[in-house]
Here is the input.
Amino acid sequence: MKEVILIKDGELALKGLNRSVFEDKMISTIKRRLKKYGPVTISKAQSTVCIEPIDDSFNFPAALDDVGRVFGIAAYSRAGVCEKDMSAILREMPGYLKDILKDKKTFKVEAKRADKSFPFTSPQISANLGGEILKNYPYLMVDVHSPETIITVEIREKGAYVRGAQYKGAGGLPTGTSGKAAVLISGGIDSPVASYLMAKRGVSLLAIHFASPPYTSIRAEEKVKTLISKVARYCGTIKLAVVPFTEIQEEIGKHCPEDYFTLIMRRLMMRISSRVAADNGCLALITGESLGQVASQTLPALSATDEVSTLPVLRPLIGMDKEEIVVISKKIDAFETSILPYEDCCTVFTPKHPHTKPKKGQCEMAEKDLDIEPLIERAISGIEYSFIE
Ligand code: ATP
Ligand code: MG
Here is the structure.
């Protein structure tokens, strides 16, 4: 029996006139993502997107797994398709349902007729197919109130579709429907989670990473790339800018008071990121900061870094506890990579007693001996770009 993937979009349903724009974005993401699994046709009708393999070369399980990570999808399922004819339905569908029914005791059939010209009513379709399933699988019983599994038959324009339970989709909004933002990404637990959460809201990401060789190693940079690739599994290819940060950190070390090292370093990161982001068409910055987690994430410290950013700074983790962040980190399969013990530039020049309550103006005083503008320009001119899939 021919098999397809059926997709229901989620929040898209709320978008009124924008709906088809959102749907088209989602479909183009699906198309791009599934290309590597073999040729398919993709069609949409009645708020369902249907992915139909053109031949047997299509890697169905891998495609199904990938669809589970495409934002904008509320639910998806694999479905068998046969001719829109009652005897074909009864002949072919029970066999197709073998795997779905194998460990079950109770079931019920629900029928939906998108094509009202089909000469049987929904209750008749359910009753006929239910009876046929019972004949084929005598160990099963019908339970209309709380069945272990619901078999759904949909009579659509192009044929009759049958499926078991739907899988829950990735939710959120299709990539790119919320514009573009730049995420400051380290090798830690938080920033990959922040990236994932904003990508889930439809943001297309540029990743910016600050590296301080030889204080930070090539392995630390590889780790960051691996983390970005974990996020890219959800939102597609991400452009990465690696900013050389060694000179800036050394200059801070030479010319600034030690208790301000971290704050000034973060202010430089914000200044550079604002420019790189704007040059790449981004409308906001994203960080993995969570209120009070470390000295540089108190409200005064956050205002001291916001002060120098020319773009809004989005902090999706600001109200989350570490435990809540770790749950998401594990869900996106980033955690094991994040906890690998490679040094980040933030940990290289950590002051013993960092300032947690900088007052307005104090950071300017502390960085007055830095020749900021040329430092920023040299860092930006040394950026190396790559694309992470
Ligand atoms: P993370 O787990 O994301 O590393 P963290 O709790 O270790 O976060 P910090 O090291 O203080 O916190 O960094 C706060 C935020 O600053 C990070 O979430 C990230 O957005 C940004 N950041 C830190 N280090 C870098 C870096 N080397 N390159 C780019 N951004 C960074
Ligand atoms: Mg960190």
Summary: The chain has a mean pLDDT of 93.
